[in-house]
Amino acid sequence: MPAPTLVAVAHGSRDPRSAATVAALMDQVRWARPDVPAHLAFLDLNAPSVGQVLDAVVADGERHAVVVPLLLGSAFHARVDLPGLLAEASMRHPRLHITQGNVFGADLRLISLLHHRVREFCTTHGWDDRIGIALAAVGSSSAAANQDTARLARRFAARTDYPTEVCFATTQPSLSHAVQRLRARGAEKLLVAPWFLAPGLLTDRLRDQEPDLPHTMPLGPDPALAEVVWDRYDAASARPLPLTA
């Protein structure tokens, strides 16, 4: 049996930096396994759409697609939007088997990558003590998803020994709130560590909240992300396919 086609699905953004970063990540994904067909699709705001890519996969004669969300959290997009789009594609193409993989989540490799971004900044700027980290994420209407991010911040702090406070671009607590908490904990040098795959409008919004604070680079593109994409693909590919008549 040929390997299933990989369809990596990003959120999409009006900011061209976001799509460019995701495209660069996909170059790393394809380089890692050039024998597996790998396509990029977007949930919104960019092309091609999920439906367009899956239509093209069928046109190429493929029978099995593994869809990996390029999403850090399991919130509305991963739980509702994407499954709905895949169900629509399945109705159009009943002979195409579609398997949805898991989101990135708080993978230890990504926590290590975030730590690397922080260390890189601190080394470059000569920071060595009384450093506080504001771990900044998108935020969600799902309280459970936000709690997952807060747990991620605690894991990051435990792993790195940096005092760390979580904050969100779209909900509370805000970056300003995280700054107040870090100052109260004795941090003198504050650094924003974006838990984002790519720069975009929301990372700019965070910069506008506290314009004097420095920021590390977002997570992507990076070979560690490409490795996680293939791990999610492998786990989804290993699930048994349904029996057909």
From TrEMBL:
InterPro entries: CbiX-like (IPR002762), Sirohydro_Cobaltochel/CbiX (IPR050963). It holds the Pfam family CbiX. Keywords: Lyase, Metal-binding. One of its GO terms (molecular function) is lyase activity. The keyword Ribosomal protein does not apply. PANTHER family: FERROCHELATASE CHE1, SIROHYDROCHLORIN FERROCHELATASE, CHLOROPLASTIC. This is Sirohydrochlorin chelatase. It comes from Nocardia speluncae.
